[in-house]
């Protein structure tokens, strides 16, 4: 039994490691604000939005809409350089973007195999601009690839227990 448990752990780590991202492909826009719609898995087809003026010196001006999975939604604005806006942890959020935005903001490619490991009901939408580049990304925790994207932006997006 222990060998089987180790096998499952290694398998899930291997699959999660293979959930890397392509750079430059944003996810679909939101379809609405109901709890039912936000619980749907993210669509993988890319869309783009036009850049908008930003208040941040580095061209970062994002709106984050977080749904905790029970229907409670929070909306924050984030700017970086200097970190600011209404995000509860702007310094951590800007650091997460600095560290992982190129890999984690684009959607998981449609042809990517992802372990069906459910990470929780939380969803988020991140829209605006990051370093002057349009962002329109949907996040969830429906499988290992999506959870890896979410975790890579820890600080920008709340933890699983939030």
3D structure, described in words:
This protein has one domain (2-152). It has helices at residues 2-17, 35-38, 90-104, 144-152; strands spanning 61-67, 73-79, 84-85, 120-130, 133-141. It has a five-stranded antiparallel β-sheet with strand order 3-2-1-4-5. Residues 1-54 have low confidence and may be disordered. Helix content is 27%, strand content 22%. A hairpin with a 4-residue loop joins strand 2 (73-79) and strand 3 (84-85). The chain is globular.
Topology:
Elements: H1 2-17, H2 35-38, E1 61-67, E2 73-79, E3 84-85, H3 90-104, E4 120-130, E5 133-141, H4 144-152
Antiparallel strand pairs: 1-2, 1-4, 2-3, 4-5
* Fraction of residues in helix: 25-40%
Q: Order of SSEs, N→C?
A: HHEEEHEEH
What global shape is seen?
Answer: globular
On the 0-100 scale, what is the average pLDDT? 76
Total strand segments:
5
DSSP strand content: 15-25%
Q: How many structural units, i.e. domains? A: 1
Largest sheet: 5 strands, antiparallel
Radius of gyration based on Cα positions: 16 Å
Quick gist of this model?
The protein has 162 residues and is of the alpha+beta class. It is built from four helices and five strands, in the order H-H-E-E-E-H-E-E-H.
